[in-house]
Design brief:
- The chain is an alpha+beta fold.
- It has one domain: Gamma-glutamyl cyclotransferase-like (Hypothetical upf0131 protein ytfp).
- Helix content is 19%, strand content 40%.
- The chain has helices spanning 17-21, 64-74, 115-122, and strands at 2-6, 25-32, 37-41, 43-47, 56-62, 81-89, 94-101, 108-109.
- The chain has a 5-stranded antiparallel β-sheet with strand order 1-5-2-6-7.
- The radius of gyration is 13 Å and the shape is globular.
- The termini are far apart.
- Residues 4-115 form the Gamma-glutamylcyclotransferase AIG2-like domain.
- This is AIG2 family protein.
- InterPro entries: AIG2-like_dom, GGACT, GGCT-like, GGCT-like_sf.
Length: 124
């Protein structure tokens, strides 16, 4: 089993969650230990080399098949690139989890690092 940190359409309440993660164990809410930059244009893009904010998301325990299906969804490694990073869970526990990075900024900056904020702002 592997830990996967999701910050966009794979989070609970978003359109890809049920199709990809409904059978995976939810570990908890968390944020990245290090700062990155989140941009969004309908979907979110996290850029590794800009240090703007902690990225907010959820951690799941996934099996190899689920990770492969999500790799396909994310276009890993040609579009998004999956990399292990330290995540701080709400409990304070630190774990290593996979996160998908985009190679360059695209869309508008989400200063809070929370895709939920971007989606709420779009529907006001």
């Amino acid at each position: 089993m592997e830990y996967l940190f999701v910050y966009g359409s794979l989070r609970k309440g978003f359109w890809n969650h049920e199709a990809y993660l409904k059978n995976s164990k939810f570990v908890g809410n968390g944020k990245t230990k290090h700062k990155y930059a989140m941009y969004a244009s309908i979907i979110p893009y996290v850029v590794e080399d800009e240090k703007i904010s902690h990225i907010i998301g959820e951690v799941y325990e996934v099996n190899k098949e689920t990770l492969e299906r999500i790799d396909s969804l994310e276009g890993h490694p040609t579009c998004y690139k999956r990399k292990k990073v330290p995540i701080i869970l709400e409990s304070g526990k630190e774990i290593e989890a996979w996160l998908y990075f985009y190679p360059e900024p695209y869309g508008v900056l989400v200063k809070t690092g929370d895709y939920g904020d971007y989606m709420r702002d779009r529907h006001v």
